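Methods: holo model generation. Sequences were used as deposited, without trimming of termini or removal of tags, and paired with ligand SMILES retrieved from the corresponding compound records. Each pair was processed once, and we did not select among multiple samples. The sequence and coenzyme A SMILES for this entry were:
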Amino acid sequence: MLNGEGDGAVTEEITLRRALPRDREAVARVESQATPNLSYLPQVFDLFLNDPQGDFSVAEVGGRVVACAKFTVLPDGSAWLEALRVLPDYQGLGIGKRFYRNFFAIAEDSGISTLRMYTNIANEKSKGLAERFGFQWVATYRGAQIPTAEISGTADSTGFQPVTDPRRAADLLMPHCEEWTGFLVMNRTFFPFVPATCARWATKGKVYEDPGTGDVIVLGARFMPKQALHIAFAEGEPARWLHFARRVARASDIERIQCMYPPRRADVEVFLLGKGFQPDAYDCIVMEATIQR
Ligand SMILES: CC(C)(COP(=O)(O)OP(=O)(O)OC[C@H]1O[C@@H](n2cnc3c(N)ncnc32)[C@H](O)[C@@H]1OP(=O)(O)O)[C@@H](O)C(=O)NCCC(=O)NCCS
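and the model returned the structure below.
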């Protein structure tokens, strides 16, 4: 039976180990079968492999890579669990649970007390697995996107300038934390809406303000910067901040603009959909667990 779980038909041991450069193709194959409509591991493989803080692991059964998962430490020191993928033939056999136990072990070893993940609201299995490990639903976000070339309209966005001072970025953004329901999203990574995230993004050139109008926008990418420019937060006159985002995307030849916003910000949704943004099929939910020490 499978590694003491007693809940699968696999007769061989599951082994978890750190991913290696030679796992590139196997990991891509796992993802292409586990999430046929979502593929990004080939593009971030090196980034994940070389992450000095996190953990990128694979599961092997009989010497074959059948699953992978990534443990990432976000700027505020919390853990972000991502890219958990199990080959369909090996699902339901306890491999996801093995990874979760590994996530908790890494968190314990690193002194990390908050862990989070996201899944789409229809993914009962992923949600149920997280709940089994004590995760609770803490926020819901809705996504919409548009090819840059399809954005129309003009506005004066010339007043936007980068906010490079970490404290200024936190002062500008933190008052909006509650209404934006606690997270800032890029590449479906739900960064906690806390001063540490604001500060990191200020130093990375992702926070902009127009001092003349008070408009603010946070945009950029965690990875795959040419594929999409992510609007993680925006406040002020939508025509102006979207115009600014389009300018940034055009200047760097970025294909699409994406935004994830809390459903309670109906004003943002109405504006984006009115501009031709296409909504994602499902809302995403953020789930969180805390280790008590
Ligand atoms: C979601 C996924 C990672 C789970 O991995 P797995 O190896 O199949 O999961 P395991 O067998 O270890 O764990 C199964 C647990 O999930 C939960 N679960 C499974 N099906 C469930 C369902 N329909 N409803 C609620 N919970 C469910 C249960 O807690 C179950 O454990 P239990 O039977 O002991 O209570 C895997 O199915 C997968 O790769 N799916 C496609 C990619 C994906 O959705 N990734 C998630 C991140 S978005």
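Residues 7, 34-35, 84-86, 91-97, 119, 123-126, 128-129, 132 surround coenzyme A (CB under 6 Å).
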